[in-house]
Amino acid sequence: MSTAHPGAPDVIRSAYAQLAVTDLGAARWFWADMLGFHVQYEDESAGVLCLRGSDELTHHSLVLRHGAQPALDHIAYRVRTPEDVDKAEKFFSELGRPVKRLRKGEGTPGVGDAVRVIDPLGFPVEFFHDIARAERLIQRYDLRHGAEVARLDHFNICTPDIPAAYAHYTSLGFGCSETIEGDEHELYAAWMYRKQTVHDVAFTCGPGPRLHHLGIATHESHQILRAADLFGAVRKEHHIERGPGRHGVSNAFYLYLRDPDGHRVEIYTSDYYTGDPDHETYRWNVYDDRRRDFWGNAVIESWYKEATPVLGLDGALQPVTDGLLDESAVQVGADGLG
Questions:
Q1: Tell me: the pLDDT tens digits for 152-188?
Q2: Which of 96, 249, 258, 314 is the most buried if burial means most Cβ atoms within 10 Å?
Q3: Is-contact 59 137, C-beta < 8 A?
């Protein structure tokens, strides 16, 4: 049974992210040439590039725009009906949050009427329904290259108060697939979903609001290994931050990379179905060293400490608050970083 607030918009899934990058050409090399995103739309004069994975039928799942400094411009969720856009505007207005209505043509290319808000966690979030359709590329194997990315899977965000993040997303009707908890059930991290996979959004406890990473799905583990080989082959192995490995949480096979501006991306496959109505949250103990890597491999310090700043609706950087808990300080197994 959903615990969504009755006035909340009906969110379908995580839909796209828009990043500010300082060099659009370098970003295009990383995301399109190396990872395999398809270029859907480009406006050189406006400094905008819209990309999508091979499985996606919408206009984009990633937007890169030129900016003075690397940052998250916004994350976006698709809602079920046009009326849900109106509900999002009312819902966040009643919470006293900053809200900006965007008519078709005023916001991101391809997106219809939308509402952008600063949510209670300090993140810039867009809610939209209408978006331009794109050519079906699912069986255009001749166009695939790099990691052969299929679709955007999730956002991972750094926030200082995980229980507050959990409560907010519960009010939006999200379920919870897995958590990392202390012995007294202190909440260190949570994975929450609307589509029927492990997550659309996950929370990493730490200074925030900041974007930890974008999770991009590919179909098979060998595509992740190929991505690592490609970066090594062109002597750009420094873009690889962590992995390949197998997560305990989510069971996913993963590789973390950093783009030329330091934005983190996870190439991701092999999670599981969460659509049964009696699906139960799986709770990991923070002292289990398999939680972040099922094989017990170390989690490097940059993965815990570094993340992308986020912008407000006015384009200024959002202030950052220190986290209430620090998972990296828990000395356990291979990754005792305290």
A1: 999 999 999 999 999 999 999 999 999 999 888 889 9
A2: 249
A3: no
Query: pTM for this one?
Result: 0.94
